Amino acid sequence: MSLHIRTRLAAADERVTTIKIPPYEIRTKVFFMIYNMSTDNIEAKGFEFYEVLMEQYYPWFAQYMVMQRVCIDPNFHDICLMFLHKVNSPVLDMEIRKATYANCKILLRSDIIKSCSGERTLLKNIGSWFGKSAIQWNQDPSTYVDGLIPLIVKAYQKGLMLAVVQFISKILEPCQPIISVGTMEILSLLAEIYTKPDLQLSLEYNIEVLFRDFGVDAKHTKTNYLLKDVKHEVA
């Protein structure tokens, strides 16, 4: 599985600055290092990384890790977080976060996310990574509520709720079962969507699962009526 070509092109267009790409020999070493990384050699790989890659190439490495590894292989997430912990570079962490946010935005804007299950899977994968990495960096994923609420509203308008609910479920997974104020705001909005008469059955099921994981009932959750006058496409 990989990003659709149109999504890749969008990713390239999204970049404000040109990413410096390391020489072929260095790229080959990096690919080999990451491909052969395991829990048994994670410390050695951390030291090797510093020897192989200069800081000017960190944006390139971050894009590679997020687009080629994190999005595609959820089983790689934990070992990637261990690796970043061993490298212990605030600069690299920042670049990884930037690449994560950028690729989330790109996938969510994809014009084929509604019809392509592969792209939705990539979105779920990066949502899972988003949540796990936020926890590692001592952040509650639900603190991004200011960005997630408009995202849900826009997805509701465009008929993309199934993809977005799955994405948000993965982001909030590490928070379960504790419900913070931010999480409650998100759940309240989803509860409002849950009450809509034209709700798709698969979407209804996904919302119910998310609420159940937090130990609450979507039917009895107070809503904020943010969607009262919002027109939408049926998902």
From TrEMBL:
GO terms for molecular function: molecular adaptor activity. One of its GO terms (cellular component) is P-body. It holds the Pfam family CNOT1_CAF1_bind. Residues 19-231 form the CCR4-NOT transcription complex subunit 1 CAF1-binding domain. One of its GO terms (biological process) is nuclear-transcribed mRNA catabolic process, deadenylation-dependent decay. It comes from the Eukaryota. PANTHER family: CCR4-NOT TRANSCRIPTION COMPLEX, CCR4-NOT TRANSCRIPTION COMPLEX SUBUNIT 1. This is CCR4-NOT transcription complex subunit 1 CAF1-binding domain-containing protein. It comes from Aegilops tauschii subsp. strangulata.
